[in-house]
Q: What sequence folds into this?
């Protein structure tokens, strides 16, 4: 803690102190106000501690503050108004706190700023005019706040290109169209706008960017995909899913030769899927599902790598992969045969019949799903924005991502974009005599720890049990270490970080929760990695219910079991 009287006097006497770095400690309490009174303070880094309270209001008024990093604490209150009082501030990092209120307007004119990271707070209001167009700014992160309003045009009449290389506005409340002056971002490599309320067309100027990663998903963009997007030759990641886009996929998209991730799902795109996309040799993940595509599904090139789930929800698509044969009939016009107008009528008749059968099949499937979902019981362990029907929809062969002796794991994406993993348990049968199974599931569902995979819900009927977990995008540590590309991204610093995080999760299970949980099958395949490569311990706590309690027979699937549990201790102590 920094607030004892002696420390106060000691700091006050350090008139020439210009750098104070106390990051990665366990310091707590509030940041003392006298830190803001140090006349020569240029750098203040207190990140990754447990500081609470507000940021000192006078911070920055000395006119010399250049670097401020208070990230990963528990700070509340608002951002001080005078952080950039003399245009000296270069780095402002406040992410992962509990800050609220608006971003100070003065920061929109802080021309010295090069890096700003304000994500994962509770900030509201709009981004100050001119902020994202600051001439020296190269990184700007505002993700996961409550910011709203529209993005302003660049007020600089000279339209001089700006240096911004990464802009993250995802998971906020921004609305309106994208400004045309985004074309000023000649150095932009990452543009993340997902999870907002942006509307209007995707502007053609998007083709002027040299962007590597573009995420416009979960907005309200409408109109066609602009052909100019094919000019983004360096693009490797493109996600424009869950919008209101319509029209065909422009053939120009096949010019993006470095593209390896493409998600066009849950729009209103139509016509045929261009065969030319199969020539994109880097394209390994693609999702065309839940659109209005029609015709024969291409089979050559990269299309041979995709499974049926990539094209689900397009009833007019046909091809062997979809178990929907393309019944195109050709009639040769020869003497004595039917005239050409009969050929047209015959073809239309076949098409109408196919549509009738397809519609009937869809209605029957929906009716079956509704009736079957009524027999399922859903137990949730947190607020969910999807239903048991959405969960059941994931349980199909095209979504399988793992198998084991005790269960099959499916990947699913909910209508709101949330990704989940669904584990179908094998060998449990009827739950009428569960011998405490449901009680144990309830206990596991209440566990809350940053480094333990969260159990979101439990679904069951008389024949089947489904466990719904948060989805870990980067798979298991075992896959990362021993897979084909593992050594390319798991450097030693990241491996050390993963080891520490896994140890924290195991420590909680073994020592801090009640009843104590002994994992008993700790291995790299049971350490899962999220999209940020943060480690999460998985596969524990259910082995005592497998094969009449024979946990040793099922260690490869759902391993681990409870050790000795004293009577009456089935109450969880949350961290």
A:
């Amino acid at each position: 803690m920094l607030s004892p009287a002696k420390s106060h006097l000691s700091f006050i006497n350090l008139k020439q102190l210009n750098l104070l770095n106390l990051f990665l400690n366990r310091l707590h309490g509030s940041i003392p106000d006298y830190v803001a009174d140090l006349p020569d303070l240029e750098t203040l880094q207190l990140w990754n501690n447990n500081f609470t309270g507000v940021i000192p209001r006078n911070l920055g008024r000395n006119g010399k503050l250049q670097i401020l990093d208070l990230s990963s604490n528990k700070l509340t209150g608002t951002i001080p108004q005078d952080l950039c009082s003399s245009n000296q501030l270069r780095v402002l990092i406040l992410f992962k706190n509990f800050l609220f209120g608006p971003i100070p307007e003065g920061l929109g004119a802080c021309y010295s700023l090069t890096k700003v990271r304000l994500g994962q707070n509770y900030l509201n209001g709009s981004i100050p005019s001119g902020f994202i167009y600051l001439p020296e700014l190269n990184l700007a992160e505002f993700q996961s706040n409550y910011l709203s309003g529209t993005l302003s045009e660049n007020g600089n009449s000279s339209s001089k290109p700006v240096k911004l290389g990464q802009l993250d506005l995802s998971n906020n409340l921004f609305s309106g169209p994208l400004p045309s002056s985004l074309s000023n971002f000649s150095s932009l490599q990452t543009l993340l706008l997902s999870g907002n309320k942006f509307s209007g067309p995707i502007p053609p100027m998007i083709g002027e960017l040299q962007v590597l990663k573009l995420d416009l998903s979960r907005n309200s963009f409408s109109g066609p995909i602009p052909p100019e997007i094919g000019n983004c030759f360096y693009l490797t990641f493109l996600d424009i899913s869950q919008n209101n886009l319509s029209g065909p996929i422009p053939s120009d998209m096949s010019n993006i030769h470095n593209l390896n991730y493409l998600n066009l799902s849950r729009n209103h795109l139509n016509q045929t899927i261009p065969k030319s996309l199969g020539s994109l040799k880097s394209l390994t993940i693609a999702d065309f599902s839940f659109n209005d595509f029609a015709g024969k599904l291409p089979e050559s090139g990269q299309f041979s790598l995709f499974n049926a789930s990539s094209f689900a929800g397009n009833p007019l698509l046909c091809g062997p992969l979809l178990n929907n044969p393309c019944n195109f009939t050709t009639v040769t016009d020869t003497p004595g045969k039917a005239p050409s107008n009969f050929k047209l009528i015959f073809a239309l008749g076949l098409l109408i019949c196919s549509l009738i059968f397809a519609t009937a099949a869809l209605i029957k499937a929906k009716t079956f799903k509704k009736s079957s979902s009524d027999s399922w019981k859903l137990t949730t362990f947190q607020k969910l924005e999807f239903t048991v029907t959405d969960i059941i929809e994931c349980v199909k062969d095209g979504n399988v991502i793992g198998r084991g002796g005790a269960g099959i794991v499916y990947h699913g994406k909910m209508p709101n974009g949330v990704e989940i993993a669904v584990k179908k348990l094998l060998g449990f049968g009827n739950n009428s005599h569960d011998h405490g199974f449901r009680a144990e599931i309830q206990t596991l569902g209440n566990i809350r720890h940053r480094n333990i995979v969260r159990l979101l819900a439990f679904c069951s009927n008389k024949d089947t049990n489904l466990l719904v977990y948060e989805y870990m995008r980067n798979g298991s540590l075992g896959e990362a270490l021993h897979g084909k590309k593992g050594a390319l991204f798991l450097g030693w610093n990241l491996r050390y970080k993963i080891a520490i995080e896994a140890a924290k999760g195991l420590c909680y299970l073994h020592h801090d929760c009640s009843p104590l949980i002994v994992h008993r099958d700790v291995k790299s395949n049971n350490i899962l990695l999220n999209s940020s490569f943060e480690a999460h311990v998985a596969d524990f706590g259910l082995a005592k219910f497998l094969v009449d309690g024979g946990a040793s027979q099922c260690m490869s699937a759902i391993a681990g079991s409870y050790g000795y549990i004293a009577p009456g201790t089935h109450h969880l102590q949350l961290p």
Remarks:
- The mean pLDDT is 81.
- DSSP finds seven helices and 34 strands in the chain.
- The chain has five domains: 1-64+73-81, 99-200, 206-326, 336-374, 377-562.
- Helices lie at 5-13, 340-373, 388-394, 437-445, 477-482, 486-489, 492-512.
